[in-house]
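Hi R.,

Here's the input for the NAP complex you asked about:
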Amino acid sequence: MRSRLLVTGGAGFLGTHILHRAQNYTAIGTLHSTAVTAIPDVTFHVCDLQEPQHVKILLDRVRPETIIHTACSEQGGNLSAIPKAAGLLAIQAAKRNIRFIHLSTDQIFDGNTAPYTEANAPCPIHPYGKAKTEAEDLVRALNPGATIVRTSLLYDLRKPDRQTTRLIDAITNQSLCKLFEDEWRSPIWVENLADALLELATKDIPGTLHIGGPNSLNRWDLGVNLIQQFGYTPTPNIQKGTIERSGLVRPPNLTLDSSRATKLLQTSLLSLSQSRKSVLKTNP
Ligand SMILES: NC(=O)c1ccc[n+]([C@@H]2O[C@H](COP(=O)([O-])OP(=O)(O)OC[C@H]3O[C@@H](n4cnc5c(N)ncnc54)[C@H](OP(=O)(O)O)[C@@H]3O)[C@@H](O)[C@H]2O)c1
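And here is the predicted structure with NAP in place:
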């Protein structure tokens, strides 16, 4: 019998990709306020993961062996949902002996001492990073067997993701858009991360695991590469910028060291060019 996998955030960017690739599981997704187009063999449950009763009813009905918790990102602006949902799911998963994989972010670091390994202590500098740090702390305290996966910027190569859509819109509307040359991340293709998480769902790896792409890229290079993927080139209104000149408070270098994941997982963590080759193979 196939294992039962619950993916929270079933209409979200990462959640949708996991559910599309979870053919080896009986896969169930959660929905919140956004409808989703049907995914073959996947069932959905509507719930608010901030509500203790909703979480209990969900788990009573679904009876998953594993939960991949992708819900509650910085989108939507309700940062208090991030620790609330993580805490409720973590404690229920521990009580019910359900393997729990919690999605966290590189944004829990301040960006001043990259590359970051799992041994580095969180030091968030903005509200989203603080909410995700609080969520991590709750998961660790309430469910010591859980895996906390910290990842980096997620990108899509088959259709423009949120950031790339914004850039393409700026090209179309001729509106000014600055891409920072001094902001570094370890971007990872969303399908590659989904595969790594589905592999992780078959393994017991308690503790924290960094899963980012193998190359550090700045936002300018990443942005330009991604618009080129969809046939666009930067127009004069798409400009290089720097965090320093913008006056914004942002972590400058959030490069993740994912060598622990590379050793533990069979799924190879792909660079942007390797991901492109993989897309070309399946979609020439
Ligand atoms: N995207 C990235 O580049 C990135 C980078 C690093 C880490 N991460 C982490 O990866 C995870 C997935 O990110 P993502 O980009 O896929 O997020 P996303 O597209 O914003 O999806 C988040 C999902 O959470 C749902 N949600 C929000 N509040 C909820 C609630 N109270 N109850 C139930 N569901 C709720 C949303 O549903 P509604 O829209 O219907 O409210 C949405 O479907 C997050 O934990 C994020 O912090 C993402």
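One thing worth noting: The chain has a mean pLDDT of 96.

Cheers,
M.
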